[in-house]
Recover the amino acids of this structure.
């Protein structure tokens, strides 16, 4: 058993940290980037591509690096550390992950290589208004048109949907063999940004990103793979993204705590620094407890994702997501509170950390969802065994 | 990074599991499983079985019965013992005074005390706390005055756990009341509890049980040969001892076991109640995070020093231990009121002990450095606040 990164992983972390610290170590630069047209810095995106980060989880044959969930976690944690606004999670882990899992050889070559090279942006168009956290689609419907497919319906919010070159879309399949949930199943499709009958309305999101309302009206689409029910693939991809998001959250909360610690030792009130007041230092200690427990669970989940069965991976993803949803929220809220008024200002980073933590939760499931997923299984075993 | 145990560690785990589940009498393990109080005889019997197999004091120097195990193997040993409902070796002996004598004692003290301490031929008590010295332990007053080759001890200790069974007590005593810093005038003294002038008085706790005591010393004459380390070196020794105490302090295995038993006690139908299931799920998740943190800590404390996150284990471990005991009370429902019923009661045993156990476990966040003290340690030494 071993919880330390090996030399290669450390080198990856150092390289990514170096790049991102240069880009966003000064929080003002992040603010500038999020005010830009794409809400991230295309230059940083290109540099990440050059470093191989955008192809990290894909097979080498598909233009990627063939790395696993631990490496993805390393990158995500570093992104979280500096609150980098680049859409790594949605473009690479979710949209790219779906292509890697469901695409044909030709589709993978056509989509992943340019994604990895930073030349083409993918967006993950899965959420639907009022549909909650689910792995199926219903407001967007697919129908067969001769040899091809056509989509009609709505996706929202789609992160970076407005500027993506290709959308990876989930859609309800036409009547056919039913999948456990009673529907015909959910297919995975790709849609080119300039496809007919596609409209996109972009808007900013609270965490500094941009999302879009996307409507399809008889929009031509290409099925990823066979065009069959891909619910299991969607679930797997969501689980992978949950673990990556948990790693990003880990970076977010670890820096929220450092900022708080620095603030408590420098801010003076009543003639002394704030760390003189035990009521405050104790709260920082509890943040540390949350941080350490979160780190353990996030590293573990990545290891299970790497080595475990899909069922084990799915449970591990929920465990990491639940921990992050509860501990992340606590730490994020406390960080703001202990900073006082400056904590709620836009020019200071801690408030944005909570905003981003809540955004991650909104994308991949909150404590209620993951508690319910885990609660459904508690009767089926005695003790939780962390070791496979 | 790797999650699995090495083949060697997996085999080690199997070996421990087999030993604990086959060699320690079922009646003793049933008592632990039922969360009932162990008798002195059961604790002694269990430790002697472990000691005969070299499993009572693996953390000691090999010369004195220790095992050359990795920190991970010690962790596995500790967890498997708890999983199998085997009483842990008496902490006062195995993790407190034993390591102190091994590290600071004279050759004669080692030879006299260590074998008997490992085998629980001597039952040790811990005489640190006093009525006016709890968290601020260095404020203790119990005095030892040198008189020829003896010390004369006067004063009072309190909260002495299982002092009613104690053969010997290791005491922190004030040997120099004039010392500039109160920490500087303290010594570590071993006292035979049958010496005239030692009196043990019971303290009843909120669960009705008797596990702690006051110990009074009136002109108790103790051979100077029973001083451990140098005179006035007691504070260093106490810090060494308390540092050891904090390692392995998160009772993850035991808490997991109670949680698993609780599922059996209430049965599937109750577990289908979404609120009950959600509570289990939430606690299990935190316990898993704690267990993994404990594993991270042992995997990386190879240089022998406790990991700075040890306080996290004590803090969160005691909180979760208490939370599980709270959950069990809720699961027991009205049956929990039958705490005084006898064995002919229609209420199952686990429900009857639920509230006494819960009340008793309030102690977990108080002793061994209260959770506030752990927060203080995290704030100061880890966060630099
Ligand atoms: C069941 C049980 C068994 C025990 N067994 C033994 C034993 O065998 N031998 C032995 O020597 N002792 C034993 N103890 C004593 C134990 O170590 C002390 O109770 C403990 O150190 C706390 O001291 P106190 O009870 O005097 O509380 P106090 O120190 O008076 O604390 C009261 C409250 O104030 C808080 N507090 C204290 N100082 C600070 C601070 N600086 N900052 C913030 N909060 C603070 C505490 O956390 C607590 O909440 C036992 C205690 C119990 C309950």
């Amino acid at each position: 058993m071993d919880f330390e990164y090996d030399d290669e992983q450390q080198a990856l972390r150092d390289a990514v940290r170096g790049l991102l610290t240069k880009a966003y170590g000064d929080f003002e630069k992040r603010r500038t980037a999020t005010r830009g047209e794409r809400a991230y810095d295309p230059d940083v995106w290109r540099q990440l591509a050059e470093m191989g980060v955008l192809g990290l989880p894909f097979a080498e044959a598909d233009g990627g690096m063939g790395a696993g969930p631990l490496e993805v976690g390393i990158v995500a944690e570093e992104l979280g550390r500096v609150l980098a606004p680049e859409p790594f999670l949605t473009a690479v882990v979710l949209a790219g992950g779906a292509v890697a899992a469901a695409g044909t050889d030709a589709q993978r070559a056509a989509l992943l290589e340019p994604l990895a090279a930073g030349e083409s942006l993918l967006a993950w168009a899965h959420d639907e208004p009022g549909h909650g956290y689910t792995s199926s689609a219903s407001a967007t419907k697919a129908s067969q048109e001769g040899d091809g497919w056509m989509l009609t319906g709505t996706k929202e919010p789609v992160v970076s949907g407005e500027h993506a070159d290709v959308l990876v879309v989930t859609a309800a399949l036409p009547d056919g063999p039913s999948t456990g949930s009673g529907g015909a199943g959910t297919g995975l499709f790709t849609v080119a940004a300039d496809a007919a009958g596609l409209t996109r309305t972009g808007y900013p999101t609270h965490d500094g990103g941009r999302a879009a309302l996307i409507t399809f009206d008889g929009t031509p689409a290409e099925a990823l793979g066979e065009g069959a029910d891909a619910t299991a693939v969607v679930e797997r991809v969501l689980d992978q993204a949950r673990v990556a998001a948990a790693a990003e959250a880990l970076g977010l909360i670890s820096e929220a705590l450092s900022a708080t610690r620095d603030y408590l030792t420098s801010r003076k009130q009543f003639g002394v620094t704030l760390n003189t007041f035990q009521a405050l230092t104790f709260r920082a200690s509890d943040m540390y407890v949350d941080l350490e427990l979160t780190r353990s669970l996030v590293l573990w989940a990545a290891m299970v994702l790497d080595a475990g069965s899909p069922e084990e991976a799915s449970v591990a993803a929920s465990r990491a997501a639940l921990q992050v949803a509860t501990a992340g929220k606590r730490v994020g809220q406390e960080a703001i509170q202990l900073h006082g008024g400056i904590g709620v200002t836009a020019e200071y980073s801690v408030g944005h950390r909570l905003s981003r933590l809540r955004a991650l939760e909104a994308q991949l499931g909150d404590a209620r969802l993951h508690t319910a997923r885990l609660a459904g299984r508690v009767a089926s075993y005695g003790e939780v065994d962390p070791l496979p | 990074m790797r999650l699995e145990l090495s083949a060697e560690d997996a085999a080690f785990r199997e070996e421990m599991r087999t030993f604990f589940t086959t060699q320690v009498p079922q009646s003793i393990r049933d008592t632990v499983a039922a969360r009932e109080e162990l008798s002195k005889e059961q604790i002694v019997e269990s430790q002697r079985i472990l000691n005969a197999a070299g499993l009572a004091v693996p953390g000691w120097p090999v010369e004195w019965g220790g095992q050359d195990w990795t920190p991970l193997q010690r962790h596995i040993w500790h967890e498997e013992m708890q999983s199998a409902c085997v009483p842990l070796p008496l902490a006062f002996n195995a993790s407190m005074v034993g390591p102190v004598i091994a590290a600071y004692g004279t050759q004669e003290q080692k030879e006299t005390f260590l074998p008997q301490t490992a085998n629980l031929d001597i039952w040790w008590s811990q005489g640190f706390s006093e009525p006016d010295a709890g968290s601020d332990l260095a404020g203790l007053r119990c005095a030892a005055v040198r008189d020829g080759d003896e010390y004369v001890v006067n004063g009072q200790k309190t909260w002495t756990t299982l002092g009613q069974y104690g053969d010997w007590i290791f005491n922190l005593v004030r040997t120099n009341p004039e010392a500039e810093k109160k920490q500087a005038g303290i010594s570590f003294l071993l006292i035979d509890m049958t010496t005239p002038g030692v009196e043990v008085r019971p303290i009843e706790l909120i669960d009705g049980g008797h596990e702690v005591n006051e110990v009074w010393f009136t002109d108790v004459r103790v051979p100077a040969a029973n001083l451990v380390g140098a005179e006035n070196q007691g504070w260093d020794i106490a810090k060494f001892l308390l540092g050891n105490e904090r390692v392995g302090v998160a009772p993850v295995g035991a808490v997991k076991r109670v949680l698993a038993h609780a599922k059996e006690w209430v049965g599937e139908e109750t577990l289908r109640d979404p609120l009950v299931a959600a509570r289990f799920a939430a606690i299990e998740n935190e316990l898993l995070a704690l267990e993994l943190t404990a594993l991270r800590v042992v995997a990386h404390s190879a240089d022998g020093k406790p990991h700075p996150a040890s306080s996290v284990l004590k803090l969160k471990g005691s909180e979760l231990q208490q939370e599980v005991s709270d959950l069990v009370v809720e699961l027991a429902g009205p049956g929990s009121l039958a705490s005084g019923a006898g064995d002919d009661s229609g209420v199952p045993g686990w429900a009857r002990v639920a509230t006494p156990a819960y009340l008793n476990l309030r102690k977990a966040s108080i002793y061994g450095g209260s959770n506030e003290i752990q927060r203080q340690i995290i704030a100061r030494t880890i966060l630099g606040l």
